[in-house]
Design goal:
Layout lengths: L6 H13 L2 H5 L3 H18 L3 E8 L4 E8 L5 H13 L2 H34 L9 H12 L1
Antiparallel strand pairs: 1-2
Helix pairs in contact: 1-3
């Protein structure tokens, strides 16, 4: 059960279960306790953000903390609002937007890969076209266009 969840979510679930009064907690069956634990662990899994920065500032008499989290808002009300806004845009326009975004992303990664490979080639001293450099080909292409 705990293998697909981080250890922190198990610790959080156990902490929440420990906050339930003992008289109520002992009245729960093992299946009920496991169900509650599972629900809290799933909640933590969904709350994880794409980028999380946390830090502490220790001063002489006090400690301050800073937490910055960045990620998609997955609250139910937000998802419903996004879906209703998305439904207002006609499907062909949405498809064009998503396709354009995909092409732009692939092109950007392609250019980055080309530049990275070119720099690696240059660093290794490999000369594919003797006495020619990328700058020569770019200038030749610009002259050909104009």
């Amino acid at each position: 059960m705990t293998s697909k969840y981080p250890e922190a979510s198990l610790i959080y679930a156990e902490y929440i279960l420990s906050r339930i009064p003992a008289s109520v907690r002992h009245g729960l069956s093992q299946d009920q306790t496991d169900g509650i634990r599972q629900a809290f662990m799933e909640d933590i899994k969904q709350r994880q953000s794409a980028i999380k920065f946390s830090g502490r500032l220790h001063l002489i008499f006090r400690t301050y903390y800073l937490v910055i989290m960045l990620g998609r808002d997955r609250r139910h009300s937000t998802l419903e609002r996004e879906a209703s806004k998305r439904a207002l845009v006609p499907l062909p326009i949405r498809n064009f937007f998503y396709t354009s975004l995909l092409v732009l992303t692939i092109t950007a990664f392609g250019i980055l890969a080309f530049v990275g490979l070119y720099m690696l080639k240059s660093a290794l001293g490999i000369d594919i076209f003797p006495n020619h450099h990328l700058r020569d080909f770019v200038l030749m292409f610009i002259d050909w266009i104009t």
